[in-house]
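@channel sequence for tomorrow's demo:
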Amino acid sequence: MSMEDISFKIVVADPSHKVYSTQITDEMENSAKARGTGIAKRTPAYVETKMDEGKAVIALTSDGIWAGFCYIEAWGHGKYVANSGLIVAPQFRKYGLARKIKQEIFKLSRKKYPDSKIFGLTTGAAVMKINSELGYIPVSYSDLTDDQEFWKGCQSCVNYEILMAKNKQNCLCTAMLYDPNAKKNHTEELALRENFKKEIKLFDRWVRLKKFIMLRLNKSKDNVKSIFL
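structure tokens (generated this afternoon):
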């Protein structure tokens, strides 16, 4: 199937899209296993709740085939918002669909939570690059929400032991944050953002290096509290 033969419709998900919930969560889990990193598991019921609340976007082909998904989570009484669970069906991963979904969920987040900080945790270099294009910058975990319900969501991740060993200050995921109230001309932030925009190799190199060091230290348990602080 060539790019010329297919088109996508990305819309705010609603109850009519619940028929795709199991397919979505199954692919989330399969994708995490393939990357060897893991994400917090989500149930079909949880995804369906997001559809009921109008806090998700879904991508479908013109033939009604599910192609992608992402949802919004609010933490700290709405002070922080996360765009979570970004997933694209394997057969549609060469169409730039992840970027389009991220753009739409970002717009929806800004509409529903205009004053909230939007953050994300990811092990994916491609997602990091897309976030950077939207205005996110890499930050430390201490810049994220302290809402304990958010961190409980990490318990099903295969890397939860590393997170706890780091006292929730770091893990294999890289934290990125969009602050709607940040100064637009903050020199250091803009310079960093431009560097990350240059090429995907920068993100990929960072992800591989962090994974190597974190997993190695987790096995040895030596100096695990000193890295990346």
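heads up for whoever presents: The helical segments are 21-35, 44-53, 97-112, 125-134, 148-152, 160-165, 187-197, 200-220.
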